[in-house]
Amino acid sequence: MNSIAQVHLSNPMYALENGSKLFVTDGGLETTLVFHEGWELPDFAAFPLVDTPSGRMVLTKYYERYIQIAQRYQTGFVLESATWRASPRWGQKIGYSEDEVVAINKRAVSMLKELRDQYATADMPMVISGCIGPQDDGYRPSEQLSISQARAYHSVQAQALKDAGADMITAVTMTYPQEAIGIALAAADVGLPAVISFTVEVDGKLPVGMSLSGAVCWVDEVVQPQPLYYMVNCAHPDHFKNTMRTDMDWTSRIGGVRANASRMSHAELDEAEELDDGNPAEFGGLYADLAGVLPNLRVLGGCCGTDHRHVEAAASSCAAGGWVRQAGTV
User: Fold this and answer.
1) What is the pLDDT of residue 142?
2) Is 116 part of a structural domain of the chain?
3) 194 in Cβ contact with 182 (< 8 Å)
4) pTM above 0.90, yes or no
5) Low-confidence residues of the chain: pLDDT under 50
6) Distances from the Cα of 95 to the Cα of 42, 141, 197, angstroms
7) Is residue 26 situated within a structural domain?
8) pLDDT of residue 319
9) To 5 degrees, how large is the angle CA 63–CA 201–CA 263?
């Protein structure tokens, strides 16, 4: 085993932090659970599955499908916890006390640690990311928290994820920068690096009307230490690819993409009763196009409408384009 591989095995964050290896992560967890597995998710919350044997079994099989993709393409893997809705407000809505929310965040991470113990290798480093979602609706927030309010609200979940052994915190489906800043600060407060993932509308702007570049630059200006990198999720590549050009410095901060399979707007997706899973092969090709304009792209995954087919197509297309770095090299 060479020295870089040894570092990957002993410190799985190393390759993710310095961009020395491409990583894949999962696709649309809630999409898969609802449309493919037949689960009813209260308020679109997947975290209650962690509390039952049948739920843990379906989650384990779900993650294993994506781990197999990482094995095939010799990439790393980001294990994202099923805790997007596991914050105090959402927990209370479906009957969980704050103490129970804290406990289930810890159990969700413990489950991922078991998967990492079973599957991680020097050639396939596995990073555990504690997933934090928005305090309000992920498409149309009815209220916007101040930075201090967001920091205080999300500190409960951030501390639970840290205590459970997460390697980092990823804020997913952020609709406005103040909440993203609050989460990044809450992560810093507990000593974990943060990743911020914004969502955009069909015009490439955040739901509150701000440009993606403006949001990224604002967070970078306010938060110290700065987020590890940024991502875009819950939008089709066609909705944001034209905002990303190689002559724009801010695009070097985009390290991951978890796109939607569908070209529908958020409003249309909210009203849709049937799954729109798009075209996985086309989806993969669009990721290869993004890799050509995002110099620090390092994490490939999916969001609404996607499953393992889409993520495999993305990994395959990027591999064919030479974007997958050989294991053990920098």
Assistant:
1) 80
2) yes
3) no
4) yes
5) 324-330
6) 10, 22, 28
7) no
8) 79
9) 65
